[in-house]
Amino acid sequence: MPNQQLLRLQLNTARKHNALQKGKLLQEKNMLAVFCSPSRYTQGKNATASLGEEMAYLGLDGPALVVAGRPPIRLLGEIWKQTFNSSGIKHTIHPFGGECSLAVGNARWLKL
């Protein structure tokens, strides 16, 4: 009988701990996590140069926010500008600073 009581106490404690952890996670979580599988996937040589055209084909007219590290911006920044401009898509290229938060996202979108 004491073993059953101890087991019940441990189980109840674990349930309370899990509930608290879930509540804590829900309180700390300010942004939604969304995964969307593309209906179209483009890959190949110079595919980045056709990004604006592909977006227009899908009916997307912007604004677009490109968040990337500094090396990709150095390598692809001009291509992104050209492809978006040629398709008439308003855009911003923002260097990723190592933090992803709602405040950072809102500040960037407000500038568009």
Measured on Cα atoms, how large is the radius of gyration?
23 Å
Structural class: mainly alpha
The neighbouring-strand order within the major sheet is: 1-2
Question: Roughly how many Å apart are the termini?
Answer: 67 Å
Q: What share of the residues does DSSP label as strand, in percent?
A: 5-15%
The parts where pLDDT drops under 50 for at least 5 residues are: none
Main beta-sheet strand count, sense and barrel state: 2 strands, parallel
Number of helices: 4
The shape is globular
Mean pLDDT: 76
Which sequence of SSEs, written as H and E, runs from N to C? Answer: HHEHEH
Number of strands: 2
The helical percent reads 40-55%
Question: Overview of this structure, please?
Answer:
The chain has 112 residues and is mostly helical. The chain contains four helices and two strands, in the order H-H-E-H-E-H. It has a two-stranded parallel sheet.
Topology:
Layout: H1 2-28, H2 51-57, E1 64-68, H3 70-86, E2 91-95, H4 102-111
Question: Any descriptors?
Answer:
about 55% helix; two-stranded parallel sheet; 2 strands; about 110 residues; mainly alpha; 4 helices
Summed up:
With 112 residues, the chain is mainly alpha-helical.
